[in-house]
Amino acid sequence: MADINLTVNGRTVSGTCEDRTLLVQFIRENLGLTGTHVGCDTSQCGACVVHIDGKAVKSCTMLAAQADGAEVLTIEGLASGGELHPMQAAFREHHGLQCGFCTPGMIMTAVDMVRRHGGQLDEKTVRHELEGNICRCTGYHNIVKAILAAAEEMGAGAKVAAE
Amino acid sequence: MYATTYHRPKSIEEAGQLASEEAMYLSGGQTLLPTMKQRLAAPESLIDLRHIDELKGISVEGRKVRIGAATTHFEVASSDALAKVCPGLCHLASLVGDPAVRHMGTIGGSIANNDPAADYPAGLLGLGATIITNQRSLSADAFFTGLFETALEEGELVTAVEFEAPEKAGYAKFRNPASRYAITGVFVARLGDGSVRVAVTGSGADGVFRHSGMEEALAGNFAAEAIDGTTVDAGALMSDLHASAEYRANLVKVMAKRAVQDAR
Ligand SMILES: Cc1cc2nc3c(=O)[nH]c(=O)nc-3n(C[C@H](O)[C@H](O)[C@H](O)COP(=O)(O)OP(=O)(O)OC[C@H]3O[C@@H](n4cnc5c(N)ncnc54)[C@H](O)[C@@H]3O)c2cc1C
Ligand code: FES
Ligand code: FES
């Protein structure tokens, strides 16, 4: 068994699980944070993306034990108070979701993308960097639109601020 | 996934001591964990390499490059020091999988796995790199021995790769749009002594291979049209649901030309 200590969405949490427990299972089942989804068993869909120490990672392809000691940000940690994160607001505004299953992973991937590129995102880059996130509903157009809009709003300062 | 026991060593030595027939090294986990989830691998224990500082980082001294085995694809893709001497390898790393995979996956894991459609085997074979392990040094030519096969002995740990920065190098990849692995990828490098190396991934029936005909043609004239006169034997290539051997034979030439055109 593994003792896991993490900072999740700014809160210190701990728990015990089997060594083989995936981080996504730990987040959903031990911590009850079910915003992070599982959409495949081949590490390809991106529904499970969270940030580990500030970087987007597929939580279905990491053991909870590997993450021990790390800082984890999940979709639940993005909004502050009652206010949506600009990326969440942009997905709503631009109809970047239909069923919503892929949305948590899309948004976590998108926030990571803006962090790395700042306000200098263009459509080609967004599409290239969404390759690890699959959506069965939207056809991606509005997702791309939402990310570009949020990137602009979050501004060129985003990259610097995150570093 | 079957039960396993997780270890987190802090040094190469400690990792080596934990190695056994039933244990496997866990680097980025971007290949091993999906394989374990499908129960195609069931190691009794996992030796995590992500917390061993001596396995990480990129150093560039003059033209000499050293990349630690646990350095991620993202770190290679975004290294300014490496981009100054070998941007072709940064470009290759930026084409591996997707951003989340690049944040975790490592160069050591990629070459130890030697997937016939992986990118790094072509890069390192094309650069004529040296693979350093906790026991010895091997040339890339000796390291990659077949489909998912390498010269690594049981428990042997890749610690770093080293190479002389080439004069120019380029990588062109025709990706499978679903998996993002290479249906064909070609890495071309012109080395400091004027010789040229051409390494092909995604196509060979025995995994990554060098194409001597193209190497000779490009050594005489480092230009895309030099490839026109060369032939690629479809008999030595893979056929699968993604592409026939004949189609791949054509792709090898097309990707080689693009790699030459893009070489920097
Ligand atoms: C969705 C997806 C898309 C991908 N697309 C691509 C792609 O386009 N191109 C590509 O090349 N790859 C691709 N990959 C694979 C990815 O690059 C992996 O990171 C890589 O193949 C393995 O590296 P790793 O660090 O994750 O190794 P792990 O999965 O941790 O290990 C792989 C194997 O190597 C062994 N090993 C690891 N490190 C060492 C070491 N230092 N010494 C000895 N043995 C070691 C392990 O025991 C295991 O057998 C993709 C993966 C996914 C999930
Ligand atoms: S659930 Fe993680 S990639 Fe699909
Ligand atoms: S909105 Fe349904 S999967 Fe993306």
Structural account:
Helices cover 38% and strands 15% of the residues of chain A. Chain A is α+β, with helices and mostly antiparallel strands and 163 residues long. In chain A, a hairpin with a 2-residue loop joins strand 1 (2-8) and strand 2. In chain A, helix 4 packs across helix 6 (141-154). Chain A is globular. The longest helix of chain B has 18 residues, at 245-262. Chain B is of the alpha+beta class and 264 residues long. Chain B contains eleven helices and 14 strands. Helices cover 32% and strands 24% of the residues of chain B. In chain B, the strands form four sheets. Chain B has a five-stranded antiparallel beta sheet. Chain B has a four-stranded antiparallel beta sheet with strand order 11-12-13-14, with helices on both faces. Classes of the chains: A alpha+beta (163), B alpha+beta (264). The complex binds flavin-adenine dinucleotide and FE2/S2 (inorganic) cluster (FES) (2 copies). Residues 24-32, 34, 49, 69, 96-97, 101, 105-106, 108-110, 112-113, 115, 118-120, 152, 157-158, 180-181 of chain B line the site of flavin-adenine dinucleotide (FAD).
Task: Please specify the SSE layout and strand pairing.
The complex is a heterodimer of chains A (163) and B (264).
Chain A: E1 2-8, E2 11-17, H1 23-30, E3 49-52, E4 55-58, H2 64-67, E5 71-73, H3 86-93, H4 103-117, H5 123-129, H6 141-154, H7 157-162
Parallel strand pairs in A: 1-5
Antiparallel strand pairs in A: 1-2, 3-4, 3-5
Helix pairs in contact in A: 3-6, 4-6
Chain B: E1 5-7, H1 12-18, E2 23-26, H2 32-37, E3 45-48, E4 58-61, E5 64-68, H3 73-77, H4 80-85, H5 87-94, H6 99-104, H7 107-113, H8 120-127, E6 130-133, E7 137-139, H9 140-143, E8 144-146, E9 149-150, E10 158-164, E11 168-175, E12 182-190, E13 196-201, E14 209-210, H10 212-220, H11 245-262
Parallel strand pairs in B: 1-3, 2-3
Antiparallel strand pairs in B: 4-5, 5-10, 6-7, 6-10, 8-9, 11-12, 12-13, 13-14
The structure holds flavin-adenine dinucleotide and FE2/S2 (inorganic) cluster (FES) (2 copies).
One FE2/S2 (inorganic) cluster binds at residues 97-102, 135-138 of chain A.
Domain 2Fe-2S ferredoxin-type (chain A): 2-78
Protein name (chain A): (2Fe-2S)-binding protein
Organism (chain A): Pseudohoeflea coraliihabitans
